[in-house]
Amino acid sequence: MSVRTFSNPAGNERCLGYACPICGSSVFTFLWEVEGARFHRCCGCGHLQQYPVPVQEELSLRYGEEYLSYELSNEEAFFSLMAKALDDVGFSSLTASRGLAGGRFLDIGCATGRLIEHLRKHGWRAEGVEVCSPTARYGIEHRGVPISISTLEQAAFGDQAFQVVHASHLIEHLSDPVAFLQEAHRILDNRGLLVLTTPNSAGLQAKLFGSGWRSVIPDHIHLFGRKNFLTLLRSNDFSPLSWKTWGGIAKGLVSETIKRPVDRFAKLSGLGDVMIVLSEKR
Ligand SMILES: [Zn+2]
User: Is the per-residue pLDDT at 104 higher than 70?
Assistant: First the structure.
């Protein structure tokens, strides 16, 4: 019988590896394992991310028919949230005052193209990028909107092609958010606008629920806190012009009389569950 080499059980030691996209540190503390995904916190800036980081090409293969039915059953709810968030951040007034309205608009991770359809009706030259083939095909066939079935990088748009680049609930799914921001920067016109929506890991719900927070799921590789997210944008040559957070406490957890003031407090203090940031290309 062979004798196994001595080992202690696996512990919660800090891990060396992938550099943090916010501060560049490669020292992380292991926090939680959730459905096989291992979440770590950066010791330099507190950024929350998975490690090891899955390869993007393989990650994209996760999204298939199931994602299409999820999108279809939530389509109108997601669209009205997106429209409200754009309103909150002053999108229409800003684009109108800068003469950008009706310009070229790219929606990355556009799902079934609901926002693109809406914008095209309002005069924008809007188009999308979507890695999930059945979902993109639905948009192309049922809505007649232009969608490239690929990642942003594979779509290979020209330099400074767009006045606005928008991505809602996308950046947290990516292996390399810095590469994504660099590509968004390249395809944006001078002083073009980047609008990103993503969960706020510095929000009230994230703090309350820890590993039970609804955004701690295997599909979310990076979970940004509001301050860290603004730092990431600035260090990639974007100037944040306006941001908002919303969502204080999940529906059904507390009574409406408690939920309403908590939601208002979260919104006013930047502790909402989801954030939208409108930035300008520098
Ligand atoms: Zn960091």
Answer: yes
Q: How many CB atoms lie within 10 A of CB 116?
A: 24
Gap from CA of 214 to ligand 1 centroid (Å) = 22
User: What is the whole-number distance in angstroms between the Cα of residue 48 and the centre of ligand 1?
Assistant: 8
With beta carbons less than 8 A apart as the criterion, state whether 240 and 234 touch: yes
Of residues 269 and 64, more confidently modeled: 64
Mean pLDDT of 176-183: 96
The predicted pLDDT at position 2 comes to 57
Domain ranges, residue 106: 77-281
Residue 9 in any domain: the answer is: no
Q: Residue 193: inside a domain, yes or no? A: yes
Residue owning tokens 């062979």: 2
Burial of 32 (0-12, 13-18, 19+ CB in 10 A): middle
Q: Measured in angstroms, how far is the CA atom of residue 88 from the centroid of ligand 1? A: 29
> What is the number of domains present in the chain?
1
Question: Which range is least confidently modeled, 67-76, 115-124, 187-196?
Answer: 67-76
User: Is 97 part of a structural domain of the chain?
Assistant: yes
Output the domain CATH number for residue 177: 3.40.50.150
**Is 174 within 8 Å of 270 (Cβ atoms)?**
no
Ligand 1 centroid to residue 15 C-alpha, Å:
13
